[in-house]
Design a protein that fits this description.
By secondary structure, the chain is an alpha+beta fold. Helices cover 52% and strands 7% of the residues. Strands 2-1-3-4 form a 4-stranded antiparallel beta sheet.
């Protein structure tokens, strides 16, 4: 009987073949938490704080029940929010440094559960500004990371398989939503448009857009292979699973090079390491074999505390039960994208870009100091990541998340947003300093404008010839008024 239990624990816990996987998963996910908490501390008060565009106190008074647990259900203040965000950032930095991993197995468990609960408290009151798929992806990844234990116990293989199941849902879900969605994914023409119309282009997006169209079709084919075929091989024996993980990581690096998708691609790369065995890593990194072999021997000699095995297996059983809903969703004709099926944000459905925008629209926000708006000199407010001046090369911001810029993209597509955009214009009329800090430039140097307005432009990339003649990256055409001149 004892021998059978030992064999079971050895098979699911006492693995010395995934020391690199645990190292990357814990530190990588913690590093993303640092970015998430810092971006929250810097942006949340102006967007959602006591005097924000969508104030949390007003939201809490309006809703009877938040989407999930939150520390702010009983009381919200900007001071408390900042305390939560900076505490989370410091705790996550400790994991990046490897400090909790040096202690007993329960220490990383408690640390990651704390990160999960702190960030979930933020997401569950973040409303539309936190309604992105990578928010719930980070929460689920952070929850699982705690059950990897510390360096004093072997890497629990069962947790690695749960990470692989997470990558499968992320990749296969994105592939299925594309095939069910826009025809351009099926006829392989999606990238004729995507690099130009994606939410936030980066410095290389213009160059990617101008690749030959046959190569764009090859890119789409590669995407379909990586998302619809490769994920199944994550569950295969090594080295097949490791090769599948490499393919996932390479395709995500391609997306990092071509766009700004917050931490979605970076965290996916970290998650793919759950299928990366030490032997595969040793084959990729010259000279790493002996060190990894010694680490494997040390890990294999460690025992798994009974309490830790029970906790991990109980968590695994819970995740298997919660997996029924996302599994059913994957094969549903009405597949949901980036959806949670429970209040704890576990066992989620993922996906991205089920449809591709063919034409790019941008909303430009302008103000004037003149009394008469008809004859006024209108000056444009400048955003960090959203395209503005035609001659400005888009910047790289990911994995940092510019939430206002992303919402401006959705607004230009016709998504509802006046509930936050009209208050945004009012803050500009008042020259609110917290709001102005969300922007790259205030054309009035802190002075309140007399009028503000919002105009719609059509944007397209310059051609090679236009770029050589003008140096501009964009051509824009005024299409009309979005919000008529409004006086302060």
């Amino acid at each position: 009987m004892t021998g059978g239990v030992d064999a079971f624990l050895h098979g699911w816990f006492a693995s010395g073949d995934y020391t690199v996987a645990r190292f990357v998963l814990q530190r990588g996910i913690a590093a993303v938490f640092v970015v998430a908490f810092v971006s929250t501390a810097r942006q949340f008060p102006a967007l959602l704080g006591e005097h924000g565009l969508l104030p949390v106190p007003r939201y809490l008074a309006r809703v009877g029940r938040t989407p999930g647990p939150t520390l702010f259900r009983w009381r919200y203040s900007d001071r408390l929010l900042r305390a939560v965000a900076w505490t989370g950032a410091v705790v996550a930095l400790a994991v990046v440094a490897g400090l909790p991993q040096l202690g007993p197995a329960w220490l990383p468990l408690l640390v990651f559960l704390a990160l999960w609960l702190l960030y979930m408290s933020i997401v569950n009151v973040g409303q539309v500004f936190y309604g992105f798929g990578w928010e719930i992806l980070l929460l689920e990844a952070g929850f699982l990371a705690g059950f990897l234990g510390s360096d004093r116990v072997p890497t629990p293989v069962v947790v690695l398989f749960l990470f692989r199941w997470l990558v499968f849902r992320l990749e296969f879900g994105a592939g299925m939503i594309k095939m069910r969605g826009d025809t351009v994914w099926r006829d392989l023409t999606a990238l004729y448009y995507h690099h130009e119309t994606q939410p936030m282009p980066n410095p290389l997006s213009w160059w990617f857009h101008h690749l030959p169209k046959p190569l764009h079709k090859v890119e789409v084919l590669g995407n379909h292979f990586a998302q619809l075929v490769v994920p199944f091989f994550l569950f295969a024996p090594q080295p097949v699973a490791g090769i599948a993980a490499i393919i996932v990581a390479v395709t995500q690096l391609w997306l990092v090079l071509s766009g700004n998708f917050a931490w979605l691609n970076v965290v996916t790369i970290f998650l793919a390491f759950s299928a990366m065995g030490d032997d595969v890593v040793a084959g990729l990194v010259p000279g790493a074999g002996p060190a990894l072999h010694r680490a494997a021997e040390q890990a294999a000699s460690r025992g798994t505390p009974a309490w830790f095995a029970v906790v991990v297996l109980a968590m695994a059983a819970l995740m298997v039960v919660l997996s029924w809903w996302p599994l059913r969703n994957l094969f549903s004709r009405r597949q949901l994208m980036n959806a949670s099926f429970n209040r704890w944000r576990l066992g989620n459905a993922y996906g991205a870009f089920g449809s591709i925008t063919r034409v790019r629209y941008e909303i430009a926000v302008e103000g004037t100091l003149d009394a008469n708006p008809r004859d006024g000199e209108w000056r444009e407010y400048r955003f960090h990541g959203k395209p503005g001046e035609p001659g400005r090369l888009p910047r790289q911001f990911a994995p940092y998340h510019l939430r206002l810029d992303w919402l401006m993209w959705f607004l230009a597509l016709g998504s509802p947003g006046l509930d936050w955009f009209v208050p945004f214009l009012r803050r500009l009329l008042a020259a609110d300093q917290a709001t102005l800090k969300l922007l790259r430039g205030d054309p009035f140097d802190g002075a309140p404008p007399t009028w503000v307005r919002a105009r719609v432009y059509g944007y397209r990339y310059t051609t090679w010839r236009e770029w050589r003649d003008t140096g501009d990256w964009w051509v824009r055409e005024p299409l009309g008024m979005f919000i008529a001149p409004t006086k302060g």
